[in-house]
Amino acid sequence: MVNSNNQQICRCRCDAPVPAELKPVGFCVSHFTLSVERTCDEMHREIALRQANAARRAEVATYMGECALLLARVASNLCLSDDLRRRMLSTFLSLMNLRENLESAASCLPELQPSEGAETQLPLMIAKHDHTYEGYH
Ligand SMILES: [Zn+2]
Question: Domain ranges in the chain?
Answer without folding.
Answer: 29-112
